[in-house]
Amino acid sequence: MILSLLLANPAVAQGLPIPAVSPRAEVMQEVGVVEIRVNYASPAKRDRVIWGELVPFGELWRTGANAATTLSVSAPVSIGGTTVEAGKYALFTIPSEESWTIILNSNADQGGTGSYTEDLDVLRLDVKPQMGGELERLTFSFHDTTASETSLDLAWDGVQVSIPIEVDTGKMMDDAVAAYISGSSRRLASAARHYSRSGEHDKAQDAIDAALRIEDNWYNLWTKAEAYRAADDRRQALRYAKKAQRAGKAAESDGGSFPKFYAERIDKALTDWRKG
Fold first, then answer.
1. Helix 218-230 to helix 201-214 angle, to the nearest 10 degrees?
2. What whole-number percentage of the chain has pLDDT above 70?
3. How far apart are CA 52 and CA 158, in angstroms?
4. What is the DSSP code string of 20-52?
5. Which residue has the higher pLDDT, 275 or 157?
6. In whole angstroms, what is the distance from residue 212 CA to residue 53 CA?
7. How far are the Cα atoms of 39, 98, 123 from residue 139, in angstroms, in the given order?
8. DSSP string spanning 148-210?
């Protein structure tokens, strides 16, 4: 009766939930401040010989079922010593009894191996397979995770392959802190300019002094000079304009940035403000 109903009404059949032969799976791990994610379809053994038969040795394998397995990283990582930029990649392997070749390919949206192009590989890494658990289904998991490294492990039917992934968490934190500090300094300088335009000169000085405590750079010195000029304190305005000019030239000689627009603007201000 049920079969007759489904045959008679295709719309009902389309809404019928049927377990997938190779269900989708996803595993995610945070390493420091980087998110690493693997998305794959997990085939089952089902009394078949896997290694060397269902998965032939020496041939490209999608490392799962259906569409190619993908690996995504939210920031650059190092895999086996090779830098992999942030992005999503197709994860292929070439298994053999003694060694596996791990491949990351920049064409992440592939239906298996049919559209694979070696020219788009961003990583090839040889690793040694190890004995693993007698798992019925192909399984990816992360192990031995620290703040700066993890092991992405593939296991199925008595075999395990581990892919070492490293994250330069220290540098990423240093860069993030530097960007945060610089951003805070710029926002305080912007606040100082707002107060100056509004005639709130004490608040302008408080804001730019806070910015200078964070970053004693030419831009903040120039902002302080302009704040003094807006308050009709020409002597202090000239003092800080000179400081800004020296700091800008020093930054430029050290390979930093001192835009021509600001350099010329400070030069002109020093000339005009001396005249009164």
1. 170
2. 95
3. 13
4. -SS-EEEEEEEETTEEEEEEEE--B-TT--TBT
5. 157
6. 68
7. 11, 20, 22
8. SEEEEEEEETTEEEEEEEE--HHHHHHHHHHHHHHHHHHHHHHHHHHHHHTT-HHHHHHHHHH
Exposure string over 80-109, b if 16+ CB within 10 A, otherwise e: eeeebeeeebbbbbbbbeeebbbbbbeebe
C-alpha span between 15 and 10 (Å, rounded):
9
What phi and psi values does residue 13 have, to the nearest 5 degrees? Answer: -65, -35
Residue 229 and residue 254 in contact, taking contact as beta carbons nearer than 8 Å? no
Q: How far is CA 236 from the centre of its chain?
A: 45
- Mean pLDDT score of the chain, rounded to an integer? 92
Separation of alpha carbons 25 and 29, rounded Å: 14
Eight-state DSSP code of residue 70: E
Residue 110, CA distances (Å) to 48, 69, 73 in order = 26, 9, 18
The one-letter code for the residue type at 225 is A
Q: What is the mean pLDDT of residues 255-267?
A: 93
Q: Which of 170, 169, 132, 152 is CA-nearest to residue 28?
A: 152
Nearest in space to 159 (alpha carbons), one of 134, 142, 125, 140: 134
Identity (one letter) of the amino acid at 154?
L
Q: Locate 195 and state its tokens.
A: 């107060």
pLDDT of residue 12: 55
Token match 């693993």: residue?
Answer: 132
How confident is the model over 223-227, as a mean pLDDT? 95
Rg (CA), the chain: 30
Integer Cα distance of 266 and 272 in angstroms: 10
Q: What DSSP character marks residue 245?
A: H
Structure tokens at 176: 């993030």
